[in-house]
Amino acid sequence: MTADAGLAGDRPRRRSYCWRPFIGFEDTNLVGNVYFAHFVSWQGRCREAFLAERAPDVLAALAADLRLVTLNVSCEFYEELRAFDEVTLEMSLASRQGHRLGLSFDYRLQRDGMSRLAARGTQEVACMRIEGEGRLVPADLPESLAAALQAYA
Predict the structure, then answer these.
(1) How far apart are CA 153 and CA 132, in angstroms?
(2) Which of 1, 41, 73, 119 shows the greatest Cβ crowding within 10 Å of its Cβ?
(3) Would you say 24 and 86 are in contact if contact means Cβ atoms under 8 Å apart?
(4) Nearest-angstrom CA–CA distance, 61 and 142
(5) CB 120 within 8 A of CB 96
(6) Which residues in the chain show pLDDT less than 50?
(7) For the chain, what percentages of helix, strand and coil (3-state, to nearest 5) are there?
(8) What are phi and psi of 119, to 5 degrees?
(9) What is the pLDDT of residue 5?
(10) Cα distances (angstroms) measured from residue 100 to each of 26, 86, 89
(11) What is the pLDDT of residues 72-104, one digit of tens each?
């Protein structure tokens, strides 16, 4: 059974790539809730899981001269998370402008037979290549990455 939190900022759900972190005691602070920095870390891990699963050839390019540079990141918190909570990050493509991507992350908490929005995050990522003396220059998105992301727009 699914029920949304009904927050003013809750938007219609779109097709998303889903990743589930395991939340253990090491993710919590002295009070027992998940430390805020883990939410941002999970965004990065979700993005990496997406690449490994949906565009694995990009990983080889990253080992060479391709870079996916995070330009900014944010997270808004609506519910506290605790150790062993079941959370799913739902990543979707919010925007694409040239070599820049806007990614959206909804943190869905499953508790007491309900699903609700626990947090919402965003990232802006630039696709860059290393040129010459280590200088970063804008680069086209690899075709496999663009196609994989389009499925989640």
Answers:
(1) 34
(2) 119
(3) no
(4) 9
(5) no
(6) 1-8
(7) 25, 40, 35
(8) -165, 165
(9) 40
(10) 34, 31, 21
(11) 999 999 999 999 999 999 999 999 999 999 999
